[in-house]
């Protein structure tokens, strides 16, 4: 019995010693934990203060004026036309899509006994040339003549379009890119200021001016007239078409009309065959643009010819015709009559 009592007392003493040691170790760990947390808080405070001071520094100057770079000009001003989701005609029309121009009749060089090159100016404000300004929208796009040219240039030769040539030479020697044509059509980019809600200038944006398609109302065509002795016929073959535009300098000086670009007409024939010309008398009897040019259903006054022109000058540059537009018009009609009389004088009655 005494042995049991001694063992119990020894066990109680051991448990008390163990608990005292555990309490002492816990008391030693607490201050170390406190110092560490205090150090972390002080470092956090310092970093926050330094950030705030850097953000609210009154001496730092921030430039808010931003200049936005000009957009890349690689598209022409073509009116986007939504296609019709239902047939817009009471009859099914497939002839326009499948229409192709007839190939030209072959002309031998030995049979061409008479050849002259003629340059004409087509003014679409005249009554006979009003179809050039027909501005309706159809499934194949806007029907203005200038829109047809722009769309053919935008598509490019790889997608059923055409190659455009520099206006400095009407012999089709220097091809142009779409970006170059767009720059000549719209002009140089203009800097436009941008304002905030308080009316302060926040930056500048470079944009291109808007283009009015109705401002292209004059076109120049280059053609060659050939008399073929084998068929005893006079052939008119159009070589190129160029839209004209007034050239105005930055000082406001009008330099007159100049071609924007040249398009080779034989390349445009398959495209012209798929566009119809407006007919105000009968909507169902409309011809294609290719038929209009081949039938010569337009009027253009002669502004240059290789006939009696050793210095290769326009009629407006020739001596005695510079300042008189009436004489220029009469000289153009005189050239037309000389070509007509040549054919008529070959016949004997």
TrEMBL record:
Where is composition skewed (Basic residues) in this entry? 32-44
Chain segments annotated as transmembrane: none
Q: Check the record and name the Pfam families matching this protein.
A: GldN
From the UniProt entry, list the residue stretches annotated as the region Disordered. Answer: 32-55
Cross-referenced InterPro entries: Gliding_motility_assoc_GldN (IPR019847)
Q: What's the source species' lineage? A: Bacteria, Pseudomonadati, Bacteroidota, Chitinophagia, Chitinophagales
Q: Which UniProt keywords apply?
A: Signal
* Protein name (Swiss-Prot/TrEMBL): Gliding motility protein GldN
Signal sequence bounds: 1-24
Give the domain of life: Bacteria
């Amino acid at each position: 019995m005494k042995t049991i009592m001694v063992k119990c007392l020894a066990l109680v003493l051991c448990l008390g010693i163990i608990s005292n040691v555990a309490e002492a170790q816990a008391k030693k760990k607490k201050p170390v934990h406190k110092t560490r947390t205090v150090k972390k808080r002080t470092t956090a405070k310092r970093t926050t203060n330094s950030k705030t001071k850097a953000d609210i520094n009154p001496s730092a100057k921030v430039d808010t004026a931003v200049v936005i770079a000009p957009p890349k000009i690689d598209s022409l001003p073509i009116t986007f036309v939504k296609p019709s989701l239902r047939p817009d005609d009471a009859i099914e029309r497939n002839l326009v899509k499948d229409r192709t121009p007839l190939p030209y009749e072959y002309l031998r060089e030995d049979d061409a006994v008479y050849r002259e090159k003629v340059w004409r100016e087509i003014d679409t404000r005249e009554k006979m040339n009003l179809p050039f300004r027909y501005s309706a929208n159809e499934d194949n796009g806007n029907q203005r003549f200038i829109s047809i040219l722009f769309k053919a240039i935008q598509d490019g030769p790889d997608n059923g379009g055409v190659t455009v040539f520099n206006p400095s030479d009407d012999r089709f020697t220097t091809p142009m890119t779409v970006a170059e044509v767009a720059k000549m059509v719209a002009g140089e980019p203009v800097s436009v200021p941008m304002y905030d809600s308080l009316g302060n200038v926040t930056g500048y944006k470079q944009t291109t001016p808007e283009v009015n398609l109705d401002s292209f109302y004059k076109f120049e065509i280059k053609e060659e007239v050939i008399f073929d002795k084998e068929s005893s016929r006079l052939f008119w073959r159009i070589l190129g078409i160029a839209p004209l535009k007034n050239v105005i300098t930055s000082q406001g000086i009008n330099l007159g009309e100049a071609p924007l670009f040249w398009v080779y007409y034989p390349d445009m024939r398959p495209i012209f065959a798929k566009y119809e010309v407006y007919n105000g008398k009968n909507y169902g009897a409309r011809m294609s643009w290719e038929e209009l040019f081949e039938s010569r259903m337009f009027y253009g006054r002669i502004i240059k010819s290789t006939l009696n022109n050793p210095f290769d000058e326009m009629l407006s540059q020739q001596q005695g015709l510079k300042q008189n537009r009436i004489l220029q018009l009469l000289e153009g009609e005189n050239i037309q009559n000389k070509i007509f009389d040549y054919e008529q004088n070959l016949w004997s009655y």
